[in-house]
Design brief:
Elements (H helix, E strand, L loop, with lengths): L20 H8 L3 E5 L2 E4 L1 H20 L3 E2 L5 E3 H7 L1 H4 L5 E4 L5 E4 L4 H11 L8 E10 L14 E11 L2 H21 L4 E5 L9 E8 L5 E6 L19 H7 L4 E3 L5 H7 L5 E16 L1 H5 L3 E3 L5 E3 L1 E8 H11 L1 E2 L2 E2 L10 E5 L5 H16 L4 E4 L5 H11 L3 E5 L1 H5 L2 E6 L5 E5 H9 L1
Parallel strand pairs: 3-7, 19-20, 19-21
Antiparallel strand pairs: 1-2, 4-6, 5-6, 7-8, 8-16, 9-10, 10-13, 11-12, 11-13, 13-16, 14-15, 17-18, 21-22, 22-23
Helix pairs in contact: 1-10, 2-6, 2-10, 11-14
The structure holds adenosine-5'-diphosphate and magnesium ion.
């Protein structure tokens, strides 16, 4: 992509409304634009990252044996009357009346909707276990939307729902999601720690929040520092294999959100030098809630003996849009964002220091074309902005690599290659530069 053709309205000034780094940097890098409180448009740079995150989530859900569906954003109120949550959910739910006077709502979550789909189509234990998920926009009329897309009113969530015949297999479903979440966040370059959590309005008896440690997070957390060095389950792991031992390991040490915190327990369980009492960003939340919705909504299947049995269920959320902010909170410096490679909007930023200079243009065009042909995603700064502005902009948008080409280096056939994270610069020949990223 040529920067001259790319819609990326960056800001030089720091927007005054933004209180935390990720919000500031997302606005400055031209990734999002606020529409109204807690509601944002995603501009090309932001959307590219959002899609990358979404794709990692999707790949890991599919690897764990889940099926993707897409449920609507607008739901009928009657479904929520069945579960009793239409009244319970309160003002966070955006309620809408259609032209026929029917009560509708913009979904804050989809337990009722998926239970309705399942009860209408599945009759037998033979069709279990099953896990259906979608990646869809949600609306919650938060009292205090803040920190940009971190706590929005409209936000993108991956929500999965498991259906099982009995408590034991339902626990296995929970464990599979637990393990797949460890992998998902790790692939994005994040350390997310599963912490015992309250179940809140979703209900249920077992729940973990996956939390990124960050001073700017909204949750107060208490955990054992050794979690930061734990190994994450590998790619290609067999989800029909032993998940329990992984879950046991990742729950062996103390880690809780403040609702579950008990001072004496923390002090007894964690040696003083390992105690982390800090704040964190909740990027995922998994719940096991058994028959809460299946009983309320009459969702049963026939078991092996032919008896109607209420489905055992769990639900599993990931804040896809929140992750964009979470990753920036975890990875930035004074100059801007530092994207982990897996979610970077482009792999390389190519800077032409002297557009209009024939040799420089030719070298840049040639490299840009060859990298593109090799499938490397390059943002080519072909604009005639001055060099200082170009460097600042590249650092701000945080692509993992920068290649700088100008007349002076070119005299010796040299380009400068910079790693954004380490700041290390190397001088390479044009061929070496190409090989570095295509070889
Ligand atoms: N207002 C919001 N803005 C952005 N992401 C959100 C918001 N609310 C929830 N999420 C994300 O969706 C995931 C699942 O939501 P859930 O646990 O049901 O919500 P909550 O923790 O607010 O009760 C959360 O872990 C979080 O990552
Ligand atoms: Mg939650």
């Amino acid at each position: 992509m040529r920067l001259s053709r790319f819609f990326m309205p960056t800001l030089k000034e720091t927007p005054s409304e933004a209180q935390i780094a990720s919000h500031r940097l997302m606005l400055r890098a031209g990734m999002i634009r606020q529409s109204s409180a807690g509601i944002y448009s995603w501009l090309p740079m932001g959307l590219k990252v959002l899609k990358k995150i979404e794709n990692i989530v999707r790949e890991e859900m599919n690897a764990a044996g889940c099926n993707e569906v897409l449920m609507p954003t607008i739901q009928p109120a009657d479904l929520w009357r069945e579960s009793g949550r239409y009244e319970d959910y309160g003002k966070e739910m955006l309620r809408i009346e259609d032209r026929h006077g029917r009560d509708m709502l913009y979904g804050p979550t989809n337990e009722e909707q998926i239970t309705e789909i399942f009860r209408a189509s599945v009759r037998s234990y033979r069709d279990l276990p099953s896990n259906l998920y979608h990646i869809q926009w949600k609306f919650r009329d938060e009292v205090r939307p803040r920190f940009g897309i971190m706590r929005g009113r409209e936000f993108l969530m991956k929500d999965a729902y498991s259906f099982d015949i009995d408590h034991e297999s339902s626990k296995s479903a929970y464990n599979r999601m637990f393990v797949s979440y460890l992998r998902t966040f790790d692939r994005m370059g994040l350390k997310a720690i599963p912490m015992k959590a309250d179940t809140g309005p979703i209900g249920g008896d077992l729940s973990h929040e996956f939390i990124l440690l960050a001073e700017t997070g909204e949750s107060e957390v208490y955990c054992h520092g050794d979690y930061l060095d734990f190994d994450v389950p590998p790619d290609g792991i067999d989800y029909d294999g032993d998940m329990q031992s992984i879950v046991d390991k990742w729950t062996s040490l103390y880690a809780v959100t403040d609702e579950k915190y008990v001072a004496e327990e923390f002090d007894a369980a964690v040696p003083e030098d390992k105690r982390l009492h800090t704040r964190g960003i909740e990027v995922g939340h998994i719940f096991h809630f058994g028959t809460k919705y299946s009983e309320a909504m009459g969702a049963t299947v026939l078991d092996q003996e032919g008896n109607a049995t209420h489905l055992q269920m769990g639900s599993y959320g990931i804040g896809v849009s929140r992750l964009v902010g979470g990753i920036i909170e975890a990875s930035h410096d004074d100059d801007g964002i530092i994207w982990p490679e897996a979610v970077a909007p482009f792999h390389i930023g190519l800077i032409n220091l002297r557009p209009g200079d024939d040799a420089t243009d030719a070298a840049c065009e040639d490299l840009y074309e060859k990298l593109g042909n090799a499938g490397v995603d390059v943002l080519y700064d072909d604009t005639d902005e001055r060099a200082g502005g170009k460097f600042a902009k590249m650092d701000l948008i945080g692509l993992p690599w920068q290649i700088v080409i100008g007349p002076r280096g070119l005299k010796n056939g040299i380009a400068e290659v910079k790693n954004r994270a380490s700041g290390i610069k190397e001088e390479l020949s044009l061929d070496e530069t190409l090989n570095r990223f295509t070889g």
